[in-house]
Amino acid sequence: MKFYKGRLKYVIPLSVVVGVSSTMMIFNRYEEVPSLHKFLIIVGAVFFSAIISYFLFPQAGDNPDDRGPY
């Protein structure tokens, strides 16, 4: 598997948006959740969104008509 740096222009801003929005939501709405759990939820959301967006956003050389080996 090859690492594409061109996809990072989508991954990094999206991860920042997810991190900021999840921080605002979890600190404003869920005061009863311990701080460590809040931190783990935020980090998990950022990593999950980064991994998903890395594979879903296309690269400049990708062929959108390629649907697989079938």
From TrEMBL:
<keyword id="KW-0812">Transmembrane</keyword>
<keyword id="KW-0472">Membrane</keyword>
<protein>
    <submittedName>
        <fullName>Acyltransferase</fullName>
    </submittedName>
</protein>
<dbReference type="GO" id="GO:0016746">
    <property type="term" value="F:acyltransferase activity"/>
</dbReference>
<feature type="transmembrane region" description="Helical">
    <location>
        <begin position="39"/>
        <end position="57"/>
    </location>
</feature>
<keyword id="KW-0808">Transferase</keyword>
<keyword id="KW-0012">Acyltransferase</keyword>
<feature type="transmembrane region" description="Helical">
    <location>
        <begin position="7"/>
        <end position="27"/>
    </location>
</feature>
<keyword id="KW-1133">Transmembrane helix</keyword>
